[in-house]
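Quick one:
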Amino acid sequence: MDINVIVDNDNNELYLELNIFYNIGLIILGIIAYIFNIFFIYIIWKERLWKQSIQYVFQILISGSGMTLGLRNIIVGIINLTVFDSSIPSYDFLICKIKYAIDILILYVFELSFGFRMANFTILIGRPVFYKNYLENVRNKKYLVIILLFFPIMCTLFYILDINDSKITKNCRIHSFMGEKYKYFFVGFLVFIDTISIPTLIYGLYKVVKLNLNKSAKDNVIRLSNYYNFIYIIFLVLPFNTIVISFFLRADSFLIGLYYDVSMFSIAIVAIVDFIFAILHNKPVKDTAMKMLKVKNKVSFLYGLTN
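Output:
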């Protein structure tokens, strides 16, 4: 086994998953993301917050994919550090295909859920009557969840069916296995998301500025809006649009794969920051979390006194 501090393989191609620091980062972020998101889901479910607002329905999907991503990062990081060496072509072909099929599913669920949540917030600010009558409708909530699960599953199946399974030795990275049809679909999907989300973001900013609320309430809305916009632009739009630009510039396959590795790393950061923001600024989540932590602290304290 040969663990590299550098990020190139035997073919002198950049490959982040060979880097020891990248894998340590994956494991650390994976552990934190898994704990935070499973705790977040527990709070929402225990307090039945998902019945109060569709925002929490989206959050369950975001945290569910964030939890799965955390577990994926832990496993991948450990395997990369303990099993694989710099001979990337020796990676098991089937394992690599399964790994990236799971990545695709996580990616679509996370991205779509986060995007829907942001769009939902914009509609709440800009069209509150429509929001209350349609989006907070129990039946419509179910339809949205079905859409947010059905579409990623179909995209994953498309990736699997169109997978490039030629016998030519490949690196274990997502772009190496993408079929030609799926490549165009993936880039087209990202462009479509940009076309819809960027105007929605601008419209949301405009509506937030024009809100007629007292200073405290308006400050809270602005804080939430700024959070959504910052996270979306820095950790989702920029990394994935780098992939789109590289595709149109016909960059080397390994370089596109490298950008994909960075994008998956950035999603892991979002999966952690989302819970931290909720603890700081979401009163129902904050109150429940503090109540649970205090109970656990008391139990630990009493246990210490009796031993």
